[in-house]
Write a structure and sequence with these properties.
Low-confidence stretches: 1-17
CATH class: Alpha Beta
Radius of gyration: 19 Å
Distance between the termini: 36 Å
CATH superfamily: Ribonuclease T2-like
Shape: globular
Largest sheet: 5 strands, antiparallel
Number of strands: 9
Number of domains: 1
Structural class: alpha+beta
Order of helices and strands: HEEEHHHEHHEHEEEE
Helix content: 25-40%
Mean pLDDT: 91
CATH architecture: Alpha-Beta Complex
Number of helices: 7
Length: 256
């Protein structure tokens, strides 16, 4: 339904030739730092902030016991609000097939391990994240590509989310600060934020809790250029943590 041209051809030929338009000002104009109100292929607007978001699911547990898992990459309007489901014509329901046809099998294998749905339906989860958030990243609109191949931006989006996630090893950062999953220990919010800021350019992420236990992390960025090849600069969170200041639980994963 969504394959207007052969993705096998896109993988073999288009992947090498299709690319995002060059952004000469990528190091000068950061999103959320300009008076411009016009989105371009080199300027993110209104979703000027991008959030790499992570889960810590424990019941049922998802992903490895020594790693957080991917939630997504979300554009935010620089003020805590956001757009969603921006292009119904690109609300694809075949993410796995698209990635396979683009030859991104290693990416897909990684996603199956670290970008996992709590109910076991990874494909549906990825479809949701792409449709709700990915279609709202204006700098990867099809018009921003030269020699565009259908769904090229889909593979680029998922690859970028994974690449960012790999630079944000939250489990190891917390563990290095003595913050480890435990059924009885509790931790202070400031210690958690300080530990995570060390892997995020000195900027603390949003730390989310559920029933007083660690549950989610949002790492905020401003972007110079497009969302794939542009400059990512760590930014302060646009919302306050919902966790208590102390007594925070970090529940071990169980039932993997």
């Amino acid at each position: 339904m969504f394959f207007t041209r052969s993705l096998a051809i896109a993988a073999a030929v288009g992947a090498a030739s299709a690319q995002l338009k060059t952004c000469s000002n990528s190091n000068n104009t950061l999103s959320c730092h300009s008076s411009s109100k016009s989105p371009t292929c080199c300027f993110s607007y209104p979703g000027g902030a991008l959030l790499q978001t992570q889960f810590w699911d424990t019941d049922p547990a998802t992903g490895p016991s020594d790693s957080w898992t991917i939630h997504g990459l979300w554009p935010d309007n620089c003020d805590g609000t956001y757009q969603a489901n921006c292009d119904s014509s690109r609300a694809y329901t075949n993410i796995t097939a698209i990635l396979k046809e683009q030859g991104r099998t290693q990416l897909l294998s990684y996603m199956d391990k670290y970008w996992v749905d709590i109910n076991g339906d990874n494909e549906q989860f990825w479809e949701h994240e792409w449709s709700k958030h990915g279609t709202c990243v204006n700098t990867i609109d099809p018009s921003c590509y030269t020699n565009y191949q259908p769904q090229e931006e889909v593979g680029d989006y998922f690859q970028k989310v994974v690449d960012l996630f790999k630079t944000l090893d939250s489990y190891t950062a917390l563990s290095s600060a003595g913050i480890t999953p435990d059924d009885s220990k509790t931790y202070d919010l400031s210690d958690i934020e300080d530990a995570l800021a060390k892997i995020h350019g000195g900027q603390k992420p949003y730390v989310g809790c559920e029933s007083g236990a660690l549950n989610q992390l949002y790492y905020f960025y401003n972007i110079g250029g497009n969302a794939i090849t542009g400059q990512y600069k760590a930014a302060a969170p646009l919302e306050k943590s919902n966790c208590p200041s102390s007594g925070i639980k970090y529940t071990p994963k169980s039932g993997n």
